[in-house]
Amino acid sequence: MTNALELKNISVIYGEGTPFRKAALNNINTSFPKGEITGIIGHTGSGKSTLASLLNGLSKPTEGEVLLFGENIWAKPKEMVKIRSRVGLVFQYPEYQLFDETVESDISFGPKNMGLPDDEIKKRVKLASEFCGLSEKELKRSPFELSGGQKRRVAIAGVLAMQPEVLVLDEPAAGLDPKGREEILGGLTEYKNIYGTTLIIISHSMEDIANYADNILVMKDGEVYMQGGVHEIFMQAEKLFDAKLDLPQITKLFIELKKRNLCENTDVYTVGYAKKEIEKAITSK
Amino acid sequence: MSFIEAQGVEFAYSPEEDKVINGIDLKIEKGSYVSIIGHNGCGKSTLAKLLCGILLPSKGAIFVDGMNTADEDKAFDIRKKCGMVFQNPDNQLVASVVEEDIAFAPENLGLPREEIRKRVDAALATVDMTEHAKHATYKLSGGQKQRIAIAGILAMQPECIVFDEATAMLDPTGRKEIVSAMKRLNKEMGMTVITITHYMNEAVEADRIIVMDHGKIISDGTPQEIFSEVEKLQSVSLAVPQVTELMYLLEKDGFDLPRGILHAMDAADVIEKFMRRQSEND
Amino acid sequence: MLKDVTFGQYYPGNSLLHRTDPRIKLIILVEYLVLVLVAESELAALTSLAFTGFLIAVSGVRFSVLIKSAKPLIFVLAFTAIVNLFFTVGEGEPLVSFYFIKIYQSGIRNAVMMLLRLLSLVLGTSVLISFTTSPLELTDAIESVLSPLKKIKVPVHEFAMMMSIALRFIPTLIEETNKIISAQKARCADFESGNLLKRLKALIPILIPLFVSAVRRAEELADAMECRCYHGGEGRTKLKVMKSDAKDYVFLVTVTLITVAVFFLNRLTWSEVVGFCADIF
């Protein structure tokens, strides 16, 4: 399996040499497999967002290397723009970055900066807006007339239109209602399945991560607390619980059931799977 | 008359635009803990602003403690009775220092200095932020900022606080802080709490849930009642808590399990009981 | 880049400067500005420097924080120093003469004086006002000092309120600006190359979102303020009543004396001072 991104001995230290020295990230070693979705979870201040800004070279680690398909992204700092088009980064509440007259021209901003020809830009804008659930009519409107959920989609489409090989999203569904969450995360998954893009999703919602991710990276106090496949991580759900992470409600139920000796597994995180497990438990007793 | 009463309320932001609120009748009793849920754009935030008198109905009327919100002479009294905490913690703090911000409302009320001091200290204690009294507001976490916003309202000594998606921009820790503050205000201080949210885990904490869709109320009842109607909620793009959905699906498959289970612990109890019953029957 | 700006950031504490009546501080600020600007002779400059040092010492603000706040001004400082160094044409022979560059003794003197003066102005004003006076105290003080103007219908309260809110939002907007810059950089925006026109155009994707968000914040804040019964300055009371005590007046009188002294020191030469001291003893 190829790794799209690899972090080697990454540390980010603020105020080195002063009494206020603080390690935002401490010796991080991890990798993000190509074509899969990796979810990053952790408390506020665990270093998730710092990590995200390293991945496309927006900030430079104090120590260590960020490898994009084996190449150090800081090898040629002058070509950082190229790296940024290959690793797309969508910030938290990205709707606040919209600026152009129409949705279409706003989505074109990234591809234009990459210096692509006009017809290619048009094609990319169309594709990106389709996956983000934006209609032809909405492309002609001003982004400032749209609802909050639609604005979010325009902002995501703006990064998607660069057709990055890796797409990093910081809380893409924050503040949206369940349907809005599903539409955005579902659309991204679909896009990934067709184009083989590597997705990295930072989220506070363990339920979203459980539903969409293949792998999980759990951060705690600037370090990697746990990492592995979704199943693997939820097998140790108690360990997540100890770190006071917000578990899916259904996993909490199964931890309780295990305590009461009614069920053995705790790697249950979707309602469908839970139903099967309960039915199995009931019929076997 | 109830503490808050809405009678045939309609509202549109301008006469040309579609109505955001489309005929709402509502009574909220003093001391109750009500949650208003609905998907983005269903009109729940507009309703919240109407209830506090920040917006005035285009049709119908809203009464707060018997006072019509459209009555300009009463505007001041209504605001004193019914405070509001907004979504974005950064956009509702007026001052750079915590205690100066909390003092803002009592200062506006023209209270004497000693009384302001007393209220500020009491409000800080209620939200558990006394040690931050002299801190700069912009350095606080989101949850702490929202607690300051709550304290700023408490210093008016209102009878009711409306939370307009006050937890939407917070992380899970911040969200828990605010929800526990809401519960305390209601249960210990007897305050009327109205919370607008689309987090179901938050809505279940209330004593009464009102479901909105397209500017109308479509359901109104206890959390158990509301979350028994899983399909109805899903039809208006709302999700139910995971265990509620699980129990609902199991029941639909013919297992004799109760509906409207909201918490993991309750679900575990019910499942344990069910299994015991089964093994006894065998 | 922008995150290093600490202007308008209150540094909570309980130092002498924190406890001084903000109205007195405003008057002292005016005197201080006069003092720094008129100090011409070495003696006067030394006095003004010593006084600035004294202000910093009694402010309780950590020196590293102060230096950090002055950092964004390095360019301005360096520029001023260089201009003075190279472009002062003094009397006598230049010290250094290299093609068209001529450095005179008076050039060095001017450069050092300007540098110290600017640095004093920045640091002195920071510790006297921005770091030790909360924005609300400051606006209260301005409102109070300017209150006579209310009689001629100048909206003093509104002006003060606007200023205090502007100060409160500085850190928020700086943070937001950084966020927007990062977001546009992630979309391959280039702010660093091209000619002036291109660079100015590159700012549009930053300025528009910033403006839109400032308007949104203003609207929300207005609602929040209304909810908290804000209705203008009429009938408002204050949590903190400004009181001046003996210590404030002693401070004020001292600064006044130092300012007057600087005027005299400007006219004195070293030999006169020595002679003056000799007379005393």
Structural features, described:
The complex is a heterotrimer of chains A (285), B (282) and C (281). Chain A has helices at 48-55, 80-86, 103-113, 118-131, 136-139, 148-160, 178-195, 206-212, 230-235, 237-242, 249-259, 271-284; strands at residues 3-14, 22-33, 37-41, 63-68, 71-72, 87-90, 166-170, 198-202, 215-220, 223-229. In chain A, strand 1 and strand 2 form a beta hairpin. Chain A has 285 residues and is α/β, with parallel strands linked by helices. The longest helix of chain B has 18 residues, at 264-281. Chain B has a six-stranded mixed beta sheet, with helices on both faces. Chain B starts with a strand and ends with a helix. With 282 residues, chain B is α/β, with parallel strands linked by helices. Chain C has two domains: 1-133, no CATH class; 157-242, no CATH class. Chain C has helices at residues 16-19, 22-38, 42-59, 63-70, 74-87, 105-130, 135-146, 156-186, 196-202, 204-227, 246-267, 270-280, and strands at 96-98, 101-103. Chain C has a two-stranded antiparallel ribbon with strand order 1-2. The chains are: A alpha/beta (285), B alpha/beta (282), C mainly alpha (281). The B-C interface holds B 49, 52, 54, 76, 79-80, 83-84, 86, 88, 90-97, 99-100, 103-113, 116-117, 120, 134-138, 149, 152-153, 156 and C 9-10, 12, 134-136, 164-165, 167-168, 171-172, 216-217, 220-221, 223-231, 235-241.
Give me a quick take on this structure.
The complex is a heterotrimer of chains A (285), B (282) and C (281). Chain A has twelve helices and ten strands. With 285 residues, chain A is of the alpha/beta class.
| Rg estimate of chain B, integer Å | 21 Å
What is the topology, as strand order, of the major beta sheet of chain C? 1-2
The shape of chain C is flat
| Cα distance spanning the termini of chain B | 56 Å
Strand tally of chain C is: 2
Question: What would you report as the Rg of chain C, rounded to the nearest angstrom?
Answer: 24 Å
Which regions of chain B are unreliable across 5 or more consecutive residues at pLDDT < 50? none
CATH domain topology of the largest domain in chain B:
Rossmann fold
* Share in helix of chain C: 55-70%
Q: Top keywords for this entry?
A:
heterotrimer, A: about 280 residues, alpha/beta, six-stranded mixed sheet, four-stranded antiparallel sheet, 10 strands, about 20% strand, globular, B: about 280 residues, Rossmann fold, 2 domains, 12 helices, about 40% helix
